[in-house]
Amino acid sequence: MSAVLADMPKTEATKTVAPATTKAIAPSRGERPRTFYVLATLFALYVLALYGPMFCIYILSFQDIRGGLVFPMKGTSLHWFVDLFTQVRTGDVKGSFDRSIKLAVIVTVITVVVSFLAGLGFRKRFRGDTVVFYMMIGSLVAPGLVLGLGTGLLFQALGLNASWYTSALGAQLSWTLPFGVLVMFAVMSRFNHVWEEAAYDLGASRWQSIRLVIIPVLAPGLVAVALFGFTLSYDEFARSLQTAGSLNTLPLEIWSMTLNVTSPSLYALGTVTTIVSFIVIGASLGSIVLIQNKRGSSTKG
Amino acid sequence: MKSDRGDIELAGVCKSFDGVTNVVDGVNLKIADGAYCCFIGPSGCGKTTILRMIAGHEDPSAGEIVIGGQNVVGLAPVQRRTAMMFQSYALFPHLSVRENIAFALRVRGLSKADRLRAADVMIEKVRLTQFADRLPAQLSGGQQQRVALARAAITEPRVLLLDEPLSALDEQLRVQMRQELRRMQQELGITFIHVTHTQLEAIALADLVVVMEQGKIKQAGAARDVYAHPHDRYVAEFMGGQNVLSGRVEKVNGSCFTLAQAASSGIEVPLQTRPSVSVGDQVDIAVRRDDVALVRPGRELPPGCTTSLPSRVLAIEYQGYFVKVMLDTVPDDAFVAYVPEKTFFADPFTVGDVVMATWATGSALPLA
Amino acid sequence: MQSSQTPPRANLAGWLYVSPLVLVLVPFFVAPILVVLAASFFATDGFGGLTPGFTLASYVEVLHSALTLKLYLATIKFSVLTWIFTLIIGFFVAYFLVFHVRNQLLAIGLFLLCTVPFWTSNIIRMISWIPLLGKEGLINQALMALGVIRQPLEVLLFSDLAVVIAYVHQLTIFMIVPIFNSMARIDKKLIEAAIDAGASRFDIMRLIVVPMSKSGIALGTIFVVSIVMGDFFVVKVMSGGGSASVVSAFYEDVGVLQYPTAAASAVLLTLVLVAIVSLILRTVDIRQEITR
To answer: How many CB pairs under 8 A join A and C?
Structure first.
């Protein structure tokens, strides 16, 4: 996942270097090998399977009151969206939506700051760095539900109340931080430490060099970390299940609806939450592309 | 501020990264204020480490670094009033040319108007006015180098340190930027210390050439001294342009001694720089490649030549204004003659020809 | 220039930088794991109350239960099937993007197209199969219209097949990204050299591409296997209650407040997971792979 966005500048460089050759698995000119068409078909099918089902539920969420869980469409209306935010039986969607956004923003801020600092720390070896590294990997691969239960029991044992802004916040950070640090690794691997040395040479203090050089240079990578922080928190539920306390986050609301609700309002909720995700993804990717374009491209040579 | 001296003295400077081997091993050197000094040596010889210690990016394990009479060990670069130009320039990719150059003033807390005005003056000095608003990625290599130079110079350093400043450029640009560096050095009137591994670059630029090997200084002196009078075999071979021969001293007579050679009657060498030679010593000597004349066997030797060594031509390379003739004169070492183009083509040799290699006796140089 | 022994100042700076990370991971990863470990040795009153103590009763119960073996077999089956499908699809998708798409910008665009769903809700992506796989879903409708079948297939939704489909749908991206990264680092000149030397496409795949993508495959495998083994909601929803895995049984245990049994089973699962992950880590230096 880590190099998704950080890869952009690198490939930009290879583009200019890559020779226009006819000798390759896929020749850069002339006729394409037969395998190209086979693989292109496979790729197209994969993308279709990736997006197809999602689009089905977006479409089905716009049915009218007669609508069911499967095709064919029965009329078109916004009935199920209204239903979603008004019906009691679907639970407190609005409240949980609010909480999820707030929680995601908090998680994003903490994830960006902590991952950034950890990324700086991991550039040089230090005693015990391997322990921290594997602790992070462990937190990433550990079953979320088990961690969530442990956190819940821990709070119980300490006599603390589990709530979305304490125990669930921590449980989500144990998930978003390893991802954030992994993205930082990919980002830092392209950061030339000589920039920092140059800043020091020109009289910048440690803090000035972070503020005026490191952060602006790494800006696209930090946006990527923020994207991971926000979306992973916004959609997280295995770790929140035992830690969110009495008030639900949105994914927990969706989870209970999955088990109880058999109307298209479930799909309507899916549509709404995905729209939010898409806005966040679009804004993040857009700003990354904007920064990259401003910096690297135009009149080279 | 300008009156501050930029003379440098290194006294017993050592650097070790692992506590076992010294990357820089007891270096003593004086560099005069306003000098252009080049450190040269193969990679890993410690030249860049010395540069970084003078700059304050590395602390010496032992010894003193004195700039303008003050020991600067432990001081930050700004306090030392040194500035460094990094190998691939390390221009900040998110800042325009103007903002890059104004960076040092920005971190000192100068107001935006003041620092941009100062930067514009410097931009003019390096002739980049029309590029002031571009980002580094939009500049050519030569332009980037000028930005790096201006960014370092705006701090008004007493010493400018340049780490392989020309290595990122292509051949043609390198010669051009070389002149520009010299011009800037004279204009700023400060000490330049320049690290390179290109001999030509060092002797073309420097007032003081410092040849290094394995953390030690092998020879330091004016460019012409180092090139024409190498101190030992290493310097002679590293700087190039010399044939190095070795042999046992056969006899010493007055102002000359004779080096035994298997194939001929021996090599006569003047004694002046190396008085303590006795029969039986193993001695290296150097003969400049452009001092070697090639004569067909049986012909008369040019005046002043007492030594002639029979040789076979191994290879010939045309180099433009001269011709490089490679010979098997001595068994273990390469032996090369640079013959002026016109001389060569007046009576050209071919590979396999037998010739006599000779030189004026006074031009042979005994080495330490 | 790297020193073998790091100076104390560098150690202190390193720890300062990672201290916020450690301050989160210790209470929210290390401590919960220890709590679960402790709980597995505690006794229970059956109503969620825990009595501190040391008893192996929960482990005995878990290990003696015939259900345990069944759960592990089901979990392993899902893991292996998912791993095979995600690996095959992920490998060829990455291979296509790296070696067959000529325009670099297009390749990045297509790559992002694959990653966008990763940033959306897993549950929503899972339930989005219902309109397709259901008894009256699109696939059954299509097959009946084509006359391939007369009765709608019941096996499509709420079955092991649906579980595997949902897993592959969610997790293939975890294979594509690391494999794509490994492949993108292969110098294209290497492949030209191999072709010059007379290698066939298959040779190149076998002798260059696969060996050089190994670390990416290992990394992807760790992600896929650990997520499938730690999952409960896909099994619970997509099997319609028909199948269970180790963690979904854990979920049920927690639901009826059987904490020690749940904890014991979780500890055993964690041990299995650690064994698998460290086995994979022996084939690849994950830290070097990630940081380079």
So the answer is: 325
Residue range B295-320: average pLDDT?
Answer: 89
How much is the pTM? Answer: 0.85
B195 CB-contact burial (10 Å; exposed 0-12 / middle 13-18 / buried 19+): buried
d(C-alpha A158, C-alpha C179), whole Å: 44
Q: Given CB atoms, is B151 within the 8 Å cutoff of chain A?
A: yes
Query: How many whole angstroms separate alpha carbon B175 and alpha carbon B186?
Result: 17
B88-143: per-residue pLDDT in tens?
899 999 999 999 999 999 999 999 999 999 999 999 988 899 999 999 999 998 89
CA distance A1 to A181: 11
Q: With beta carbons less than 8 A apart as the criterion, state whether B237 and B213 touch.
A: no
What's the Cα-to-Cα distance from A214 to each of A199, B52, C212, rounded to whole Å?
10, 22, 32
Q: How confident is the model at residue B299 (pLDDT cuts 50, 70, 90)?
A: confident
Half-sphere exposure of C103 (CA within 13 A, CB side): 4
CB contact under 8 A, C5 and B17: no
The answer to whether B92 faces chain C, any CB pair under 8 Å, is no
The nearest CA of chain A is from the CA of B163 a distance in Å of 12
> What is the Cβ-side half-sphere exposure of residue B279, based on CA atoms within 13 angstroms?
4
Q: Which residues of chain A have pLDDT under 50?
A: 1-23, 297-301
Candidates C217, C211, C200; CA nearest to C94 is C217
**Short-list B348, B355, B347, B345, CA closest to B312:** B355
Where does chain B show beta strands of DSSP type E? 8-15, 24-31, 36-40, 62-67, 70-71, 82-85, 159-163, 191-196, 208-213, 216-221, 242-253, 256-259, 267-270, 282-288, 293-295, 305-318, 322-327, 335-340, 354-360, 365-366
- Answer yes or no: do A53 and C18 touch at CB < 8 A: no
Half-sphere exposure at residue B122, Cβ-oriented, CA atoms within 13 angstroms? 27
Please answer whether residues B274 and B249 qualify as being in contact, where contact means their C-beta atoms are separated by less than 8 angstroms. no
What whole-number distance in Å separates Cα of residue B86 and Cα of residue B89? Answer: 5
Which residue's entry shows tokens 């060092």?
B202
The torsion angles phi and psi of C214, rounded to 5 degrees, stand at: -55, -45
Q: In what order do the strands lie in the sheet with B8-15?
A: B24-31, B8-15, B62-67, B70-71
Distance CA C137, CA B91 (A): 60
Mean pLDDT of B223-228: 92
Q: Per DSSP, what are the bridge partners of residue B64?
A: B11
Confidence grade of residue C2 (pLDDT, cut at 50, 70, 90): very low
Q: What's the rounded Cα separation, in Å, for the pair B191 and B44?
A: 24
ipTM above 0.85, yes or no: yes
Chain B CB contacts of A296 under 8 Å are 93, 137
Distance from CA of A237 to the nearest CA of C (A): 9
Amino acid at C165: I
Q: Which residue of A has its CA nearest to B103?
A: A202
| Short-list B256, B276, B283, CA closest to B360 | B256
Q: Could you count the other beta carbons within 10 Å of the beta carbon of residue B270?
A: 16
The phi, psi pair for B21, rounded to 5°, reads -100, 140
Q: Closest Cα partner for A152 from A139, A127, A134, A170?
A: A170
When scoring B18, B21, B23, B61 by the number of chain C Cβ atoms within 10 A, the one with the most, hence best to mutate, is B18
Please tell me the number of Cα atoms within 13 Å of A188 on its side-chain side: 20
Is residue B315 within 8 angstroms of chain A, CB to CB?
Answer: no
